Queue: 4 jobs
Job 1
Amino acid sequence: MTLDALIDATRSLSGPDAFAPRFSADQWRNFAQYLTQHDVRGGDLLIKQGDADRTMYLLESGTLQVYANDVAPGARIALVRPGSIAGEIGLFVDGPRSANVEAMGPCEVWALRLPRLEELAQRLPALALEVLRAAGAVMARRMRSGPAVHAPAATR
C-alpha cells in the first residue's frame, strides 16, 4: 500500500470518526515521514487494554473492533473504519490503555508514536498542531457520543 491509499481513505470517510487533518499533498508527505506502516493480520491485537503504549494508529484499510474487558464479554464498543484512527488518547494521556483494538481481518495501519510526534512538533510545529487538532476532534466526538456497544458478532 502507499501513502495515497491512506490519504484517499481519510478523504473518503465522513462522519464523527473521520480523521480530517487539513493537509496539502506536500504536508501529507512530510507527515508520513513520522509514521511507520504495518500489515496487521485478522485477529491480531493492535492495542491491548492495560498496556502503557503511546501510539495512535491511522487505519488505511480493513476494520478494527474496539472492546473492553470490563464491559460485557465480547461486547463491541465500536468499529473503526478506513480513514479513522485508533489509540488517539495515547497521544494525550500517559496511562494504561482503556480498551482492546483488534483487527477483524487483514488491515493496513500507519503508526504515530509519541516520540515521533514530539520530533514533528520540534521540526514542523504547524503540522504537529494540525495532527493534534484532528485527533482531538475525533476523540471529542467519540466522547460526546459515548460508547456504541453492539452485541457480539457471534450472536447476531
Job 2
Amino acid sequence: MSVDGQVDALARTVVAIADHAMRAAYVRHTLLGMRPEQVADCFVVAMSSAEARRPAHCELLQAISLALADDACNGLRDTVCGLLQVRGEPSLARALMRASPDDEDPAAQRVPDFGKGRTVTLGERKSLARSHDRALIARVLRDPHPHVIRILLGNPTLTETDIVRLCASRPVLADVLREVFRSPKWIVRYQVKVALILNPCTPLDIALQIAPLLTAQDLRRAAAATDLSVELQEACKRLTGKTATTTLH
C-alpha cells in the first residue's frame, strides 16, 4: 500500500474513534510500531492533507500531534525530526523540534499567593489543583509548575473559558502551555488552539502544528500579529492562501 493509502486508512480509523484520548493512544501505538522513515512519511502526508482542508486528515494530524507529544514518543519524534531535516524539509522538521526555551520572564515563574502567609509546597499545590473551589482554581491557573497544571487540566470543575484564559496569559512558561497542547480534552477545543497560536510564549513547534487546523480568518490574525515569530507569521501567510473559508470548529 502507498503512503497516501496508509495515511488515508489511518485517518478513517481515527475518525471512527470518538474519544480523543483513545484516538491519541491508538495513533501512538501505531506510530511506535512503525519505522521512523514511515512515521516521517506519515507526518508529511498528514500535514499536507490537513493544509488541503481534508477533514479526516485534520483529525488525524491532531491525533498525531497528541501522540508525538507524549513522553513515550520523545525518541521517535526527535528521530523523525532529524530525518525531515536530512530530507530537506526544514519547515516540517521545525514543527517537531522542541527547542530549549529562551530565558523566560521571571514573572512567569512566580508561585501565586495562596493566602496562607507562607510558601506553599509543590505537593500542596498539586492537591489544590484537584480542588473544586473556584477561587482556588483561579490561583492555581497561574501556577508555573507543569505538573500542577497537568493535574489541574483533569479537574472537572475547569471550563473552556479557564483554559483559553490560561493559554492567552502573558507571561507564561512554555512548559505550562505545552501541558495544554498534550491534553486530549482541551487541545481539541478550537478557541484553545487560537489562544495558543496567538500567544508569543507558545513554543514554535506547537504553533506550527496547530496552524493547519485554523480557519483563514484566524490564520490572518496570526500572520498580522507582530509579536509572533517571523517564521510563524510566514507559515500562517502561506496557509491563508491554501485555506478555504470553511470553519473547522
Job 3
Amino acid sequence: MDQDESPAGIAMRARLLAEFRQECEATALERVDRYLRVQHHLIVGDTPFAPASAECIALFRDGHFYGCISLSQAVGEAIVRHMCQSNQWRPAQDFEENVRTLKQREFIDEEVEGILLGLWQSRNDYHHLNDNIATDHATLQDFAFAKIRALTKIETWVFGFSSGEGGLILRHPQYWPKKSQGKAGAFLRIDL
C-alpha cells in the first residue's frame, strides 16, 4: 500500500515515528542487556534455518517472548531434522523420536539429548497457545531465555569449531553445508 501523503497521513507518520523513537530510547538499555545475556554462537552453518535462528535472538532482545519461544523450538526442530539427514537417514515426523534415534546411534550424548528435550518442553502448549502458557512478563521472559539459551547450546555443539592453520576446524563437519574445495558455508552473526 502506498504511503498516505495527505496532511493527516503525514501527521500520523510523524507521530508514529516520534513514538517509535521514544520507545526505542526508553527500552535501549534493557534490550542491550537481553542481547548480551544470550551469548549466542557467532558462526553457524549457512542452512535455511540460520536466518530464523538469528531472528530468535532479535525477538528475545526486543522482548517478543512468545515469538522467541515458538521460533526457538521451530529452529531446534529444523536442526534435529538437519542432523538426521546429514547422518544419512530420513527423519521421522516426531521430534522426540528423532532425538532418541540420534542418541541411540551415538550422534549425540545424554547432555545434548537433555538440552534438545528441554528446548522442546511445552512446545505444543506454546505452538497452540493453550490456556496453561505463561502470561506474566517476568515468567515469560525467563522461559524465553531458557529456550534461546538451549538453542545457543545446541548450535554451539552442532556448529562448534576451533581455529586452525588456514581456517576453522569443524567439530562436526557433516552438519555444515558443503562448498567446493573442502570449504563449508557459514552464516555469520558477529557484532562489529
Job 4
Amino acid sequence: MLMSGAEFDFVNPENSEFTIEDIAHGLANTCRYSGQCRRFYSVAEHCLHVSDLAKEHAFAALMHDASEAFVGDVTRPLKQLLPEYKRIEAEVEKAIFERFNIAYPMPTAVKSADLRVLAAEQLQIMPKGTARWAVDAGIEPAIISVSYLNPPAAKERFLSRFNELYEQPRKRQALRRRRG
C-alpha cells in the first residue's frame, strides 16, 4: 500500500496507480546506506544533489533512484547477490521512467554524477576511508554539502524540483506553438 492509498504491483509496475507524491514520500523517508551513516540522510536529498550536478539531464538525475521509493535502498554489495531483486528494480524503474517520459536507459552523465555525489557523501557522512574506492577509480567527489534534511523538508524540496523540471518542456512546447 502506498501513501496515496494505491497498491503497488511488483509483477506489473506499469499498471500501478503510483503518483509523484508517493515517490517523493518514499524517497524522503528512506535513509541512504541502509541507515549506516552519521545521521539520517534521505535518498530524496541524494537525488537533489545528483540533479544539481547533472544539469543537462537534471530531470532524469532527479528521478534516477525513484524506484527505491517502492523497492527500498539496498546496498550495492547485497544487490549483487540478489539477481531477482535487480530484475524487479529495473522493471519498476522502467515503469517510472515511462510514466514521467524519461529516456531509458539512464544517460551515462547521470551515472557519472551519481558516482561523484556518492564519493562526496561518503567523505561527509561515513567513516574516514570509506571513499577510498573513488580515489582508486579516479572519481572526483562532487562539491556538495549534505544538509541532512528531515523527511518533510526533503519531500517538499524533491516535489518542488520535480515540478520545476517536469514543467519546463511543456512550457517550451506551448511557447513554440504560440510562435508557430
